[in-house]
């Protein structure tokens, strides 16, 4: 029982990353009809926003401290980050410690900007071209973004730890008398994902802006004829989708040290998620993300691995192939949207 | 000639001349000169040119003719490599059975994957092939380790049985791949004055096979079957309405292009008998897509050009470093020189992929027909200018009334 609960938790946790990326992909596909192969790169840029903020906060100056000596007897050079100098060691230290959560604030404007520039500068010109061209140009863009990041940050993974307070483990089963020990940050990630997903859905559901966007998703032409500038709203949605991917990346950094090709690794999976959920269906993307996450973590249980060796490596793809062949529009896809 | 019309024959002959004289053409700089490091006429690289040429020609038969964009073609290349290495391990070091087996196995594998994937089209087809390729890659790394040797990659050992050959040579080393005794690695060096040219047996085998593959591709392009595939690309729905089942045609194209990929994989293993799972990764599939698009999808010569272009510049660009740049731009004033080198620096050496990515984006945006279309545009522009000139000349003789 414990093991099963643990696997469900693992699955929800993995699934929350999938769901966030897939949600962004679907937002872009559902609004603009563009297949964005550069979405993984946006995830990666988000992660590197966290790295950048951490580096900025750690900028420091050196002082020669005469009172302390190193083992050779020379005066010790003490590095003090500017933040600590300005705010005092206590507050400054905790600001540095909380770099990753703070990076959320830092990443949102950057990601919206990146998304805006990407849509206006490049993707706008590809609406009328075939899907294959869209795939190709965004694939090229993904390579470029990846190489630019590699140029500035190097090829090695960069450690970005979570705040000390959130770094330990927590016993989630204590309340119900069971023993389920789980890393705190992963729990935080899950709730963060739920929060973001809930935020996006309520934004689309309860605001006028969201209503117009939903109307545009259903029938772009009519909304345009009603005198609403739907293109501008869709561009903003692209920015929001980029921000969602970026935030998923920011929060993922403590789980997995970011490196320049982390986006590509996630991209393939998140496409599979989107296809399973149904192209253009937001609830489908979220559902499929969590579902595939849970399936994947169950498949990696030793009991199941001994039954079907290797299943943990391929389960997601097998599910995707079965879904694509038996239910062409995915789990929750709308009828007639990209069914052929 | 060979059942081709005049234009195709001349194209085939040009390609044949280029490949057969590649050791000369790619070695324009004398060995002692400073530019010698930009020579590309050494066996290893030339083999890669033609092998990737075969791979891209095959990919183009699927993508260029039918418009189905497969993102999992590297899986067939990987399967071909594995089967060739197994042939070397079990049967003997002759390359012919190995290449044959790799083509057959890749064909069967393509039949299986194609049968499933081709039920869908468009982006779904891309994602299905991607999923299959990632699946094969993951399996090759994990459960199939007894066959693929996992992360280490499949290699020859002294304990292999090699029924029709020897497990080890007289001096106790692993025998080398050969074609009825002609060793693939044997190279004849010709020194002409300051130049040194290398003629490698393996390269010529690959080149001949590529010519055959290219010839076959021309025949496919010009056949009624190729016509049918083009019809699928331009309007599949209409084909279905006329009561024609397109699936057998697309499946045949998929299997043929899978066999081309298997052939390339088999040749790769024949030149260097090892195979690893990283050849099947989806970035490797992406590379062949880049080659084909860059050269010009749907054209005959495009994929070969693209493969040569990418492999050549990959080699050249990764060799250029800051020192080379400084010597190139030494004519500029000091500050300018540093600035220019600083600007170019991210694009060279390890930054080659950045250059490739930008180039690829530019091609997709501005030249959807690839290098071939670029060439045609320049040609068209020149002839139009000529026409204008003659028109102007005519205008001068007949002044307006």
Question: What key phrases describe this protein's structure?
Answer:
heterodimer; A: 340 residues; mainly alpha; two-stranded antiparallel ribbon; globular; B: 401 residues; ABC transporter involved in vitamin B12 uptake, BtuC
Descriptive account of the structure:
The complex is a heterodimer of chains A (340) and B (401). Chain A has 340 residues and is mainly alpha-helical. In chain A, 68% of the residues lie in helices and 7% in strands. In chain A, strand 1 and strand 2 form a beta hairpin. In chain A, helix 1 (2-32) packs parallel to helix 6, helix 1 packs antiparallel against helix 11 (282-299) and helix 2 packs parallel to helix 5. With 401 residues, chain B is mostly helical. Chain B has a domain at 6-281: ABC transporter involved in vitamin B12 uptake, BtuC (Orthogonal Bundle), CATH 1.10.3470. Helix content of chain B is 66%, strand content 5%. Chain B has a two-stranded antiparallel ribbon. In chain B, helix 3 (43-66) packs antiparallel against helix 11. The A-B interface holds A 35, 122, 125, 131-133, 135-137, 139-141, 143-144, 146-148, 151, 264, 268, 271-272, 275, 279, 309-310, 313-314, 317-318, 320-321, 324-325, 328, 338, 340 and B 67, 69, 116, 119-124, 126-128, 130-132, 134-135, 138-139, 141-144, 282-283, 286, 289, 293, 346, 351, 353-354, 356-358, 360-361, 364-365, 368.
